[in-house]
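Lay summary

Proteins are chains of building blocks that fold into shapes. Our project writes down both the chain and a compact code for its shape. Here are two examples, one after the other.
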Amino acid sequence: MRNIFDRQLAKLHDMMIEMGNMIERSITLAIHALVQQDETMAKQAIAFDTEIDQMEKDIEAMCLRLLLQQQPVAKDLRVISAALKMITDMERIGDQAADISEIALFLIGETYIKKLEHISQMATATSKMVTDSIEAYVKMDLDLAEKVIAYDDVVDDLFDNVRNDLVDLIRKDAANGPQAMDLLMVAKYFERIGDHATNIAEWVVFCITGKHAED
């Protein structure tokens, strides 16, 4: 029975990696759509969200089968329970990447009021957090999970930079206001993606230690 359970658990890990890859791809499409003003990429990211939603349902079904059929205890139970929590955050990351792409579509054809270097940096940073949090789960790597949690400060600092830049642009010219608000919303979505990656990492810590940040 243990061999069967181990194979099913390995399958769960593979599915988590696949969903992680999907949301990374969604983030990449979203930022490229924004920076390059690419309608095709924006629409791909929006459509991709449906696949991410389905993956969440598939992983949830797998977790429930493991809980009902195998009745795991101790660490195995924590691993499965954490996966159920993590996929909620992963699905929301997909939602936010789609939201960013919606804004990218709206801004196509406009000249940007500023270079998007800080927003691009946020995209890179949050994508790394997502990748590392999933890797920490699969490898049960406490050190990596804790690094993801600490790295959220980097994303928060980048958000502050974006917000301050945009506020200055509005002060200089009120006509910058509408686009500045759209770009601020994009930055806020990336900040939220960082928060969700942090949540995922915190559930990895729970898997390994039995303790959660909310405890």
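And here is the second example, written the same way.
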Amino acid sequence: MAETTTWQIDPAHSAVEFAVKHMMFTTVRGRFKDVKGTIEVDEKRPDRSSVNVEIGAASIDTGVADRDGHLRSADFLDVANHPSITFRSKRVEGAMNKEGDKFKVAGDLTIHGTTIEVVLDCQFEGTGKDPWGGTRGGIRATATIDRRDWGLKWNQALETGGILVGNEVRIELEVQAVKAALVTA
């Protein structure tokens, strides 16, 4: 008998962040504020677990309004035509039995209307009871992507050589989820 636990991602206590080089020598960081999703954990077969996340592309925030506006434009995310960024897992490799366990989640990342498989390197941060009687769990995940693969190709050549915006984007996730239900099938 399979036991699957559903966890709802808590957007108030989760961070979907990114970092990219600017002018080839400094790093600009940003985050997405509108994040929702579920994590389905198969207690006996963790490899059958799944993750589904939706991010509001317009919620991008780098702390600079003009830059955020440019990132929302057709030069980058084109949020008018592609309002969501999604991640749908395809497989989980490794277990999440105890705090510190490392595992991988492979899935389809859709940005700007293009879907490509990405592997997230994850670490289970543990679980605990919250003050309201619920159970929460934490996961940290990272990946590095090339933004050009998703059609985000805008750039500007620098007079001294190189480019204005780096192509490599580091993704850093800190996810807290609330246990919603245990389903036995």
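What can we say about the second shape? Helices lie at 65-72.
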